[in-house]
Amino acid sequence: MTNRLIWHKMTCITAEVAESKSTSIGVAIAGEGKELPPKVCPVPNGLFLGLRRICVELSSTDGVLPGQTDAFSLCCCTGIFCTLPTKEERMFTMKKTPFVTLEKAMEIKQQIPTPFHLYDEAGIRANAQALQAAFAWNKGFREYFAVKATPNPYILKILKEEGCGCDCASYTELLLAEAVGVTGHDVMFSSNVTPEKDMRKAYEMGAYINLDDATHVDFLERICGGKVPETVCLRYNPGGSFSLGNTIMDMPRDAKYGMTEDQMAGAINRLQKLGTKHFGIHAFLASNTTANEYYPELASQLFRLAVRLHNATGAHIAFINLSGGIGVDYRPEQPASNIALIGAGVRDRYQQILTPQGMDDVAIFTELGRFMLAPFGHLVATVLHQKHIYREYVGLDACAADLMRPAMYGAYHHITVLGKEDAILDHVYDVTGGLCENNDKFAIERSLPAIDVGDLVVIHDTGAHGYSMGYNYNGKLRSAEVLLKSDGSFQLIRRAETPRDYFATFDFTDFHFAE
Ligand SMILES: Cc1ncc(COP(=O)(O)O)c(C=O)c1O
């Protein structure tokens, strides 16, 4: 059965799946006497029976110019019943559902003033379990959570309970891991331009040390008084560009990280002479990608490299660290990463490349940050003011000091007005913070429901690289962090800064600050 709907440059349809079990559907595109080849559209987390959101993105290769799109229509293949969206339903499909209700947010706000970052314990745990399940085929699999994404001990403790270690990049992050009882090989130390103090701490904790450069072999030898660790990891930079099919994902040749293949072979030879017996290989070649092929493609490059390095040096490759980079669907119309597919893709490459070489004891490590936490964090803020000039502005009590990504990268973060989840998005606002910077905007010309002063808004997907990138410009004090626990209760897991915190680094001076 098929139904037709008008389609726009990027549109989402709600499909009632009747029988198929697949990860993608074919969507036929037709209109104005023109039939286009069917598009294969990925379905987030697989296509199971029931209502699913399916995103169809138009590109120039589809033979339709964006300006012409309104003339075209879509229909889905057999077995899938597409409902024709009304205006309200189109709004619905463009929305993300917050994990907190207005009532709960109000209850929290009575004790902890906005703005605050809120984390969803149940979501964090379920997602960590899905990752473990996706890589369960690999005996040594381990996720080392990238502490830089969400450096809060309560979050690290939850992830530790779910079997994750910590990936640390600095002395302070090492201290955080240690405070949670994560030490030894439960820590991966992936840093660059590493200070002596940081390297020494990682060595003393017995962490896996990931060397960013071949010259760091001598540096490490000096730090550890000639007694190098039994296992050392080396960070790889293949140079050139990293692409998936015809799409360039990133340019490793422009990146400051890692070493060349020849340098890696040299580092292995030297480390072997010093006493290292086992080696890890690490690379991070593309950031925030929801292309399910990223990890499998990266894995196949690293598996082939492992075989070549093993053949060239005789080294035992103990693990391959695929690092971070798996992205999240910040935009509601974006496909989400499908971790089950990603795990299966890496397994296929493992079996094709490593197993025939007798290298099937190689453990797979990841050091994901964004994928583990971003969707499970909200920045909750209150609307302080509205102003009406050449545009409509809504001003929040949160600002870029609480969430820097929109100001820094122009990153999209979805916004929901609590209590108005189902309202029509018939107003257009710039949603701003109060910094003396015009880029302090969480959203620019965003369609939202009518907003009133005092409304509570949720800025979505702030659980990773959110609070942690915060800063104190304009003397703005950093917000609190709150955990929404699996049983529905909540806990303050970091208090908001006070003026005393802001002035604390003047504690050696004669100045005294009123609070
Ligand atoms: C070395 C390293 N590992 C892991 C991560 C985590 O990346 P993501 O949060 O994109 O998964 C980063 C992010 O900057 C990184 O630099």
Q: What does this 3D model show about the protein?
A:
This protein is 25% helix and 28% strand. By secondary structure, it is an alpha/beta fold. The chain has three domains: 1-93, no CATH class; 102-116 and 376-505, Lyase, Ornithine Decarboxylase, Chain A, domain 1 (Beta Barrel); 119-374, TIM Barrel (Alpha-Beta Barrel). The strands form five sheets. Strands 8, 19, 20, 21, 22, 23, 24, 25 and 26 form a nine-stranded mixed β-sheet that branches. Helix 5 (171-179) packs parallel to helix 6 (196-205) and helix 8 (261-274) packs across helix 9. The longest helix has 20 residues, at 294-313. Bound molecules: pyridoxal-5'-phosphate. Pyridoxal-5'-phosphate is lined by residues 146, 149, 167, 190, 284, 287-288, 323-325, 367-371, 464.
CATH superfamily of the largest domain: Alanine racemase
Chemical compounds bound to the protein: pyridoxal-5'-phosphate
Biggest sheet features: 9 strands, mixed
What is the CATH architecture term of the largest domain? Alpha-Beta Barrel
Which structural category fits the helices and strands?
alpha/beta
Q: Rough shape?
A: globular
Q: Approximately what portion of the residues adopt beta-strand conformation?
A: 25-35%
Number of strands: 26
The CATH class of the largest domain, by name, is: Alpha Beta
Overall mean pLDDT stands at: 87
Integer count of domains: 3
Helix content: 25-40%
Gyration radius, to the nearest Å? 25 Å
In the predicted model, the low-confidence regions spanning at least 5 consecutive residues are 1-21, 44-53, 64-93
Number of helices: 13
The CATH topology of the largest domain turns out to be TIM Barrel
Cα separation of the termini: 68 Å
